[in-house]
Each structure stands twice: as C-alpha cells, then as structure tokens.
Amino acid sequence: MSNKLELYHGSGQIVEFPEIRKTRYTKDFSWGFYCTNSYQQAHRWAERKHENGIVNVYSYTENNQLNIKKFEKMTNEWLDFIAECRAGKVHAYDIVEGPMADDTIWNFVNDYLNKNISREVFWEYAKFKHPSHQISFHSIRALECLKYERSEVINDSTVE
C-alpha cells in the first residue's frame, strides 16, 4: 500500500461505512461508491441532491495489489469506457479513477451515446471544458482502502 490522500463523498447522510449499491441507472464507471479529491465538487453533490447535505471525508490509501484503472484525462478510451458502463457493461476493476464530466460535458456524452453527434463533434465541443475528478470503488477490497474520518454538514458549520 502507498499514496495516502483525502477523498470526499457528497451525500444526504453520514456514510461511515461506504457501500456499493446496484441502482436503476449505471454511472460513468458503472455501479460503485463514488468520491472525489475536490471538496468543492463533493459539496456541490451534497447541496444539489439533498436538502440537508453532508460531505463525508475519508483517507484513501491506494492498494497496488488491486485492479485499478486510471484515466489521466479525457481520451477516446475514457469515452468508450463510459459508453460501455452507461450501457450496463460490467468491468473487472476494483477502482476506477479519472475525469468526471460536468453537466455540460455530460450533455455532450449523452449526445454521443445517443448517436446525435459523432466522436469528432464530441471532442470539438469538449475541448475547452475542464472536467473534475472522480474515483469509484467497485469491490469490498477496494472499499477497505477508505478510512472514514469525519462528516461535515454543509448547511452550517457543524462537524461530526
């Protein structure tokens, strides 16, 4: 194990014990527990989706024995991976890390997935956009890399 850093998960509740839940819709990197290295991004997730938003804070220690996929930037491989995951394809990675499309880029991704625009048009639209970070955990072994530190209620200064 190596590389320790702080990760954040925006939610409507305290998440001391993260879980992987299969939901109706898959996300960018399929079903998993999603975090980011950006406090501001987690704050937006919590604020946008929950009346009483909470930012959960974890220390993350990377385990190099796990099957980890990292996308350093938006590439054709990243776009194809998202397309497959959104279509329901299951992958064998414990952890996937990479760019997260903001709402604007996500609209372009949807247009691409729905064949309303070509790959070339997607990249033309996306080239001036700057995605944020996401890391998703897809196995129990992956979740063991996270250590719950604290939760912060975003509507006031309460810290638990």
UniProtKB/TrEMBL annotation:
Annotated protein name in UniProt: DUF3990 domain-containing protein
Organism per entry: Dorea ammoniilytica
